[in-house]
Structures are given as structure tokens and as C-alpha cells.
Design brief:
- This protein is α/β, with parallel strands linked by helices and 234 residues long.
- It has two domains: 141 residues, 3-Layer(aba) Sandwich (Rossmann fold), CATH 3.40.50.1000; 69 residues, Trehalose-6-phosphate phosphatase related protein, domain 2 (Alpha-Beta Plaits).
- It is 35% helix and 21% strand.
- The protein contains seven helices and eleven strands.
- The strands form two sheets. The protein has a seven-stranded mixed beta sheet with strand order 4-3-2-1-9-10-11, sandwiched between helices. It has a four-stranded antiparallel beta sheet with strand order 5-6-8-7, covered by helices on one side.
- Helix 1 packs across helix 7, helix 3 packs antiparallel against helix 4 and helix 5 packs parallel to helix 6.
- The mean pLDDT is 97.
- The structure holds ligand L263DTV3.
- The site of the ligand O=P(O)(O)OC[C@H]1O[C@H](O[C@H]2O[C@H](CO)[C@@H](O)[C@H](O)[C@H]2O)[C@H](O)[C@@H](O)[C@@H]1O has 25 residues, from strand 6 and strand 8.
- It holds the Pfam family Trehalose_PPase.
- It catalyses: alpha,alpha-trehalose 6-phosphate + H2O = alpha,alpha-trehalose + phosphate.
- Belongs to the trehalose phosphatase family.
């Protein structure tokens, strides 16, 4: 089924299971070597499209891959510099406000990212509503985009999403000419599903069924890995 595809892969919750904290995920060598084999079969048409920053994705082992990071704001080809907007002073102000908020609330976590900042409440779900209210207020005060995630609120510059990333990458080598297939699990992946469908391809939703713009589904990360492995083996 993947023959002819231009494959766009989300990271957290798609290639690796969700973990308690952002730093607790593990990328195994088997995953990386399988993705390399699959990319070879697809004549290079494989990209990682994540909410993570490209710096973090490179640290996790994806340095050799075409990538878009921070929900469509960053781009990088293997071995090349990251193309990204600058880190705004407003992001530093939000990070300071988030740090004040979490100071007396064990379990909450502030994730400093290259050009954005996340407030995680997986470790203290009781604070989810208050975290959302704060994130919403700060987004409006500072003119930033509020990105919803899984047990996460993230503030970032607007003007891009995973759909715009897919559309941009489809216009150039190596993705151009393929049929776009976007695999992801989160709400931030919905724009990717929509853009893939708009260009004649499709989205694949990972995880529990929900209203989605994806046309297909896979039930969990293990099923994604199996599906990709079969694609890599041909
Ligand atoms: O677009 P993705 O690759 O799925 O990245 C989205 C966000 O993923 C990370 O947060 C999520 O995964 C964490 C580790 O499993 C989990 O603890 C957290 O609850 C999830 O929301 C990452 O930390 C964010 O920066 C990404 O934006």
C-alpha cells in the first residue's frame, strides 16, 4: 500500500508510545534502521513532521531525516541548518509565567523548546483546566498561537501547521511526485490529514477512534511499526 507514497510521520504517539514526560521517550535503533529501509524503498520520500523542535528530534536520532518541527514552523534537510523563525521575546515571557505557575504544583512541567514553550499536566491532571485557562490568557495577551496537545498546552508563533508543512514539502524533492500519506495521533495532526487528502492522498489516525479527517486508522504504535515494517520489506 505504501508504494508511490510520500510518507509524513508524526513522532510522539505514532512512532513511539507516549511517556510520562517529554524526556522519557526512547528511540530504538530498530526503528531508525527500519525507517531508513522504508525511505530507500520510497526513493527518499519520507519525512518526520512533529511538534517537537528539530533540535530535539536530532538529539533523539533523526539527524539523517528530512524534518519539519514545532508544528510546521521549522524545516531541515539532513545535514543542513534548520530554517525557522526566531525565538520571540513573548515566548520567554510565557515561559517565565509558566514557571511561576508550576512552582508550587508538583507534577506540572514546563518544556522549553527552541521557538515555543509547553505546559504539561500529564503528571498532575487535576491542574489541566487551570493550565488551559492560563495558556489561553497568555496566548491572547502575547498574540501567540495556542496549540492543544495530549495533556499539554503549547504557545508558539502562528502562521504554520502540519498541513502547511506537508504542502510545502510536497513542492520539492524528494517528496514531490509522491502520493501524500500522513500518519499521526494528535489533534495537531488533523491539518496534516486534511492537506494529504487535499493533494490526493490520505491520513491515517493512530489510536482510539475519534472524529477525524483521516480516512484510515491504526490502533496503536505497535500497529504503525508493523505497517511500516511491511512497507520497508516490500
Ligand atoms: O507532533 P508530535 O511528534 O506528536 O509531538 C507533539 C508533542 O509531543 C510531546 O508531548 C507529548 O508526548 C510526551 C512524551 O510521550 C507526553 O509526556 C506528553 O503528555 C505529550 O503531550 C512533546 O513533549 C511536545 O513538545 C510535542 O509538541
Amino acid at each position: 500500500m505504501l508504494d508511490g507514497a510520500a510518507l509524513f510521520l508524526d513522532f510522539d504517539g505514532t512512532l513511539v508510545p507516549l511517556a510520562d514526560t517529554p524526556d522519557a521517550v526512547h528511540v530504538d535503533d530498530d526503528l531508525l534502521s527500519m525507517l531508513v529501509r522504508l525511505r530507500d524503498r520510497l526513493d527518499g520520500r519520507l519525512a518526520i513532521v512533529s511538534g517537537r523542535s528539530i533540535a530535539t528530534l536530532r538529539d533523539l536520532g533523526f539527524g539523517d531525516f528530512l524534518m519539519s518541527g514545532t508544528h510546521g514552523l521549522e524545516f531541515a534537510h539532513p545535514g543542513e541548518d534548520v530554517k525557522a523563525p526566531p525565538r520571540l521575546p513573548a515566548i520567554d515571557a510565557v515561559e517565565a509565567a509558566f514557571n511561576d505557575f508550576v512552582a508550587d504544583k508538583p507534577g506540572l512541567l514546563v518544556e522549553r523548546k527552541s521557538i515555543s514553550v509547553g505546559l504539561h499536566f500529564r503528571g498532575a491532571p487535576i491542574w489541566g483546566e487551570a493550565a488551559g485557562a492560563l495558556a489561553d490568557l497568555l496566548a491572547r495577551d502575547h498574540g501567540l498561537a495556542l496549540q492543544h496537545g495530549k495533556m499539554l498546552y503549547e504557545l508558539r508563533p502562528g502562521g504554520a501547521d502540519k498541513g502547511s508543512a506537508l504542502t510545502a514539502l510536497m513542492q520539492e524533492a524528494p517528496m514531490a511526485g509522491g502520493i501524500p500519506v500522513f500518519i499521526g495521533d494528535d489533534v495537531t495532526d488533523e491539518e496534516g490529514f486534511a492537506a494529504a487528502a487535499h493533494l490526493g492522498g490520505a491520513g491515517i489516525l493512530v489510536g482510539t477512534p475519534r472524529p477525524t479527517l483521516a480516512s484510515f486508522s491504526l490502533e496503536q504504535v505497535a500497529a504503525v511499526r508493523h505497517y511500516l515494517m511491511e512497507g520497508a520489506a516490500g
